[in-house]
Amino acid sequence: MKRPAVGLWLVVLGLIGLGGFIPTRSEGCPACVGPGRPKLTLVQQLLDSDQAVEAVATAQPGVFQVVSGIKGDLAAGQSIELDIDQRPALSLAQGQRVVLGRYGLAKRWTLFGQITAGRSDWLRKISGLKRTSELAEADWKDRIALFLPYLNDDDSLVRGTAVGEIARAPYASMRSVKGRLERDQLLAILSRASETERPLFYLLLGVVGAEEDEGVIDDLLTIRQRQHGADNLAALLVAKLEIRGPGWTKELSQRYLANREATDAEKNAACMALSIHGESQPQRFRDSVVELYDQLCMEGVLVPAMLEDLTAWKRWEFRPRMVDLLSRETTPRGTKEAIHKYITACEAAERIPLGVAIQESSRE
Q1: pLDDT band at residue 16, thresholds of 50, 70 and 90?
Q2: Strand arrangement, sheet containing 79-81
Q3: Is 127's pLDDT higher than 90?
Q4: At residue 189, what are phi and psi to the nearest 5 degrees?
Q5: Structural domains of the chain sorted by starting position, each given as residue range(s) with its CATH number in brackets
Q6: Rounded Cα distance, 238 and 45, in Å
Q7: Does the pLDDT at position 9 exceed 90?
């Protein structure tokens, strides 16, 4: 989620080394989880723990009795007392089943969430999964297949874990749900999904949906455009591009990037959708996005997020034009900051002496 993640997602420019900027990736599809690092799922919490158990709340607030070990050597019947600052754990009814984990360095037990009975084998299985940083594309497809059956689970912790794990996948791997997830099943899941879960399901609707579902996506896009709302907009645009293909990029550009009435949030969502497809589609799609950006630049349109893509894709041919824009007083400050990062990354990539481009702009 690459403005996208592990292999795919959100482009961030990180300062490292001797003052140079290079693109780094945040984990998780930003169309699903937003920019930056996504919230840890139960899987990630278990992997970070040296001990984890299923336990039940006792009559004494904050004290739990182990029912089953998930990770580590604690046996059933042992007691665990949580720190007093973990207030949600102090108010649980006696007998409520939960998942607890202990982080090795802090040696501090934490409540991971409430869970229904009968999940012991599943919990032990997911506690032994690989970290997402270790997954190749084939591994991601297996990870998606593992969690796909739980997207509509009645247990909120299990369902949230499934949503979170699939949302971490590169978008190209999400296409593997086709043939495994039926459209009617997805629509039923979408009808009961929370607002935080909807972005993922909109993405998947673009992959497994039928022709009539494009109309549903169009209606949602129309509502957002009228209200200039950006909620779930990137996910809907990704779905629309999945259905219509590269031929729809020009219309997307006209609606959002070249539209002076569009908000910054709408433009960023449009760039995010183009970036996700630019990284998950054949090279010709990425080239068509770069051509689109070039045309927009010639028309005087430059969204900072466009420069994130150009940096991630190592398209340094825009450098002379960016040096010129950097020297102009009319260029907005936020745009100048993005240009500066792009030029600095260009300098590092092309081994141009640090600061040459900036000096060039100051002389013009």
Answers
A1: very low
A2: 79-81, 63-71, 49-57, 97-103, 108-114
A3: yes
A4: -65, -45
A5: 48-120 (2.40.50)
A6: 29
A7: no
